[in-house]
Amino acid sequence: MRRFDVYDDRRFDVYDDDQIWYSDQPDDSYGKRPSTRTEHNILGIYEAEHGDLVTALDLKVGDTAFLLYAVWSTGDSFGHDDGKYLTTIHLFDSREKAELARKAILDHNRANDINGNNPVSYTVVYLDNDGKPQTECASWVGYFESLDDVEIEEVIVGTRDGFEKEAREASSARRYARDYDYRY
């Protein structure tokens, strides 16, 4: 949905070490499949040729930025998937600018009552680092979709290899804790 007039902007991806849990039994209120719950753990961002985040910020490995993202749920007639999706929205150079954009998205969501009388809007407008309006697709608006939260996380710029190593180490620690019945 975004249109970029500057072709030398850089692209980044988020390294998200997410964990998915499945319910033991199908939820009878939904039907025949187990529901899921996903928790996201953002380790950082890295430069990627086809990354989802496009920014004019001059970021190098070791720098920090403020990532604005939405976590939303979906489902169908047979089950529900809590927190399934993480949609990256924008990288900001300050928490204050990110907070203003977060407020705009939350206000948009409150006005979007899919079961009510208000018209539904599938796009949301917020202000970027330079105070210019940006339009984002509100993927969390739908019959089965719902916005769980819009979050701001201070992220560090790293490398994909570095984040993969960190994720492997965290996964190993979780397995060790589970195998020995420790709370991790």
What structural class do you assign from the helix and strand content?
alpha+beta
Q: How is the largest sheet built, in terms of strand order?
A: 2-3-7-6-10-4-1-5
Q: Measured on Cα atoms, how large is the radius of gyration? A: 18 Å
> How do the SSEs run, as a string of H and E?
EEEEEEEHEEEH
Count of individual helical segments: 2
What percentage of amino acids are in beta strands? 35-45%
Q: Report how far the terminal alpha carbons are from each other.
A: 40 Å
What does this molecule look like?
The protein has two helices and ten strands; from the N terminus they run E-E-E-E-E-E-E-H-E-E-E-H. It has an eight-stranded mixed beta sheet with strand order 2-3-7-6-10-4-1-5. Strands 8-9 form a two-stranded antiparallel sheet. By secondary structure, it is of the alpha+beta class. Helices cover 20% and strands 40% of the residues. A hairpin with a 2-residue loop joins strand 6 and strand 7. It starts with 9 loop residues before the first strand and ends in a 5-residue tail after the last helix.
Summarize the structure.
It contains two helices and ten strands. By secondary structure, the protein is an alpha+beta fold.
Q: What labels would you give this structure?
A:
single chain; alpha+beta; disordered N terminus; flat; eight-stranded mixed β-sheet; two-stranded antiparallel ribbon; 184 residues; 10 strands; 20% helix
Secondary structure layout plus pairing:
Elements: E1 10-16, E2 19-22, E3 36-39, E4 42-47, E5 53-55, E6 64-76, E7 79-92, H1 95-111, E8 123-127, E9 133-137, E10 146-158, H2 160-179
Parallel strand pairs: 3-7, 4-10
Antiparallel strand pairs: 1-4, 1-5, 2-3, 6-7, 6-10, 8-9
